[in-house]
Structure formats: C-alpha cells, structure tokens
Design brief:
mainly alpha, 0% strand, single chain
Length: 463
C-alpha cells in the first residue's frame, strides 16, 4: 500500500503480456495460464493490444488493467489519507511517540498472524479477485465505524487500535492475492511496468490526499483536538467504496477448482513448502533478507512524522498533510522513471535507490526547518519509490509460479515485522527524541546497503 504501503500503512506501502520472463540463473519462468477453457487476459498472445505505445504507460492501454488501476487509486487514496489522519489523531489525544508505536504494533500483529495464510489463499483460491473485493468491503465498514464514533464524540484511543488491528488483518489476507492478481491481469512482459504504475497510483494519492485531508481538517476543525475528523474518515469510506466498485468489472483467470477439499493440515503443509522453497532458492532468500533490513531502517520515520511535525517543526495538521504530499511528488517521479526503464540492471538500481533513501533520511533527521525538510522529503520519496518498485518486481520475477503467492505473503509479513520494529523506535523517540531515533536507524541502513554492495555482488548483479 498499497501497495503498499503499500506501505502496511506505508506501503504499500508493497503492489503483462506476450513474452515470458527469463531468470538469469534458472530456466525460463512459465507464463501463468488461465483456467481450462477460459480466455487469456492481459495482453498475452491473442489478448487485447494496447491502444497507445508510450512505454511509461503501456499497461494502461489494456482496459482491463485500467479498471484494476482505478481500484488501486481508490485503495491508495484511503490508505494515504489514513496515514495522515490516524497518527495525527493519536498524537493529539496522547502526545506520545510510544502510542504512535503502539498503533503500528496493532497493525503489525495480525500481519504476522495472517500474512502466510494470505499467501496460501493466493496460491489456492479459485478467484483472487473475489478476495480483493471482500477485503475492500470490510475496509468500508471499518472506517465508517470510526467516522461515526468521532461524529458522536465517543472516540477513544482503543477504538483506533482495534481499527488498526482490523485493517492489518484485512491487508494481510488481501495483499498476496492482489499482488499476484497484477500478473494475472497484465501478464509477465508488462509486469515491471504495471507494478511501477501501481506504485505511481500510490504516489499520486500520497501527493494529493494528505494535503487535501489537512486542508479539509483545518477548515472543519475549530481549534485543537479531533473535532472534524469524521469528515476525513468519510472521505476514506468513499475511496474504499470506489476501490470495491472498480474491481467488479476486472477480468482475471480463475484457478481451476481443487479436486480435494482443503484441510488445516494441507494448508500448513503448503506453508511449510513455501518456507522450504525460499530456503532452497538462494536468490529469493537473499532478496527477502536484504529488503527486510532496508525497510526496517527506512519506514519508521513515516509513523513518527505526526510527532516530528508537531514538536520539531512546530506545525499542525495542514503542515503534516503538506509534508506527506510533497514526499508523494518525489515518489511519483521515482515510480514513473522506474516504469520507463528497461528490464535490466534492476539489482543495481535497487541498491542505488536504497542508498539515496538512507542518505536523504539522515538529512531529514537533522533538519529542524520546515521548508528544508520539505525539500529533503522529495528526495526521500524518489528513493522510496525506487526501493518499493524494484524489490516487488525482483521478488515476483525470481519466484517460481507455484510459490509466488506464498513468497508474496512472506514479503508482506516483513512489513508487519517492520511495524513491530517501529514500536521500539517509538519508545526510543520518547527517550532521546525523534531526530536521534530516526537518524540512528537511517545511518545503520546506509552502512548495511554499502556493505551489501561490496560484499554480496550477486545482489547488485540481478538482471
């Protein structure tokens, strides 16, 4: 969150055609096939041809992907609005960095519990599209409840914690299916382009929604406190509904129904096979391990930003929304650049993007001036977009078809572990201040990436 996410709340953050993708160190990957007797969706042989040929946006030439893209826009609009408002409300209600960490922890726990289950679902469910639709309907209800609690002046911090748990569970069960659904919709020859456009969708909304949320909140909020927050949650509810509705016309091949009933034992066996595959495939293991450390160092700043803006930069909701949006400009530029690049030297680009991200976060932690911070966050956005897009496409490209869903679930589980780490960074920020807490994690990340560059050349040489 997306996606992202998506970023978890980050992003996301974490989510093409005629030719197959070849792994440099393995036999050619098999192109996914539709269910028996079904059509071929997404621009493969016999599939629809793109209506325009601008390479950056070529996946959008497929009307099927355009509906999928609109659904992503709705999801990311809600997610990026929530990244602004939930942290702001928590800090206004408690004044505690540790409580910001608790919210991240609440979001992370279901991720740890359900991410692997989401991977099994993605690899075995007949319709991944239906999984996404059910998840978005649940999101609509979740944010509508919070809007009602604010409007009736009954909101307590524990309500936000419960909502974070629900969102974490929904994201964990949905994201592996949605990530794999991308390749089902567009095919593998446009996968890098589509994943970069997916991240661009996240960054377009990151560029606009926090600033819009800040403006609306500033207009409806009479002073300090959380009054008017129901309007922001109402916006999120509408965005999630758009995401749900736009997924309905998306066409994707269904998996052929299983001839045997799924049991708990067989599902656990599937999980075990996924871990065994990752242990056996050293390239995938390396990608997941390196990505985990990079994300651990680069994501906590986003969860601590509401307190950083309030106590270090002395700004309010409008300033927080503006800074989140200005970072989205850099992220959008980074995503579009990645979407335009050829599918080679991606390991090198991932390492360079991560170095840029770490260095810019060090400058961010040292800044106490609003406009300097705004400029630095543009660079942070560029580095973050490169890291997200390239790590996603490399993990999907180097994973075998049979295990791709389970690998994606472990990729998403890493985001949940990062949120657990953010809880401890929040405790550190309470003790020494947010600048020292963010700066120390960013320095550690930069040292790690440089060490990987020189000591593990296989990583930078990934095609």
């Amino acid at each position: 969150m997306t996606t992202s996410a998506t970023p978890g709340d980050s992003s996301a953050f974490l989510d093409s055609g005629a030719a197959t993708v070849e792994r440099p160190d393995a036999p050619p990957a098999q192109r996914p096939r539709p269910a028996s007797g079904g059509p071929s969706y997404g621009g493969g042989r016999g599939g629809p041809k793109p209506k325009f040929s601008i390479s950056t946006f070529k996946s959008l030439g497929d009307s099927n992907y355009r509906w999928f893209f609109i659904s992503l826009l709705g999801h990311f609009a809600a997610m990026n609005t929530q990244m602004f408002i939930r942290g702001y409300l928590v800090f206004q209600m408690t004044g505690s960095y540790a409580m910001l960490g608790v919210i991240s922890l609440a979001n992370a726990i279901p991720g740890l519990l359900f991410s692997l289950v989401g991977g099994v679902i993605a690899d075995n469910v007949k319709s991944k599209k239906r999984v996404v639709e059910m998840a978005q309907a649940t999101n609509v209800v979740n944010v509508a409840v919070i809007a009602a609690l604010i409007a009736t002046q009954n909101l307590a911090v524990w309500h936000l914690i419960v909502a974070a748990v629900v969102q974490g569970a929904v994201m964990s069960l949905m994201m592996p299916s949605r990530q794999v659904l991308t390749s089902d919709v567009v095919g593998f020859d446009r996968l890098m382009n589509a994943l970069a456009l997916n991240n661009a969708a996240m960054n377009v909304t990151r560029m606009g929604m926090p600033a819009l949320g800040g403006l609306v909140f500033g207009f409806v909020n009479s002073g300090s406190g959380i009054q008017g927050g129901e309007w922001i949650y109402g916006m999120m509810c509408a965005a999630y509904f758009i995401s749900f509705a736009a997924m309905i016309p998306v066409k994707a091949p269904d998996r052929a129904p299983s001839t045997t009933a799924r049991t708990l034992r067989s599902s656990l066996a599937d999980l075990g096979m996924g871990f065994a595959y990752i242990k056996r495939d050293k390239t995938v293991l390396m990608l997941l391990g390196v990505n985990f450390v990079i994300v651990m160092g680069s994501m906590p700043y986003l969860q601590l930003l509401p307190g950083f803006v309030d106590e270090v930069l002395h700004a309010k909701a409008g300033g927080l929304g503006f800074l989140m949006s200005i970072q989205g400009i850099g992220s959008l530029v980074g995503s579009l650049v990645i979407a335009s690049l050829p599918s080679r030297n991606r390991g090198r680009m991932l390492m360079l993007s991560s170095m840029l991200l770490a260095a810019s976060l060090i400058f961010f932690s040292a800044s106490g001036w609003f406009w300097v911070t705004a400029g630095v966050l543009v660079v942070v956005g560029v580095g973050q977009a490169g890291r997200m897009s390239l790590s996603q496409v490399l993990v999907q490209t180097y994973s075998e078809d049979e295990y791709r869903g389970r690998v994606q679930s472990i990729y998403m589980m890493e985001m949940s572990l990062v949120n657990v780490g953010t809880f401890f960074v929040g405790l550190l920020a309470n003790a020494v201040g947010p600048q020292w807490a963010i700066g120390s994690t960013s320095i550690a990340m930069l040292v790690f990436v440089i060490a990987i560059w020189f000591m593990v050349p296989k990583m930078r040489n990934l095609a």
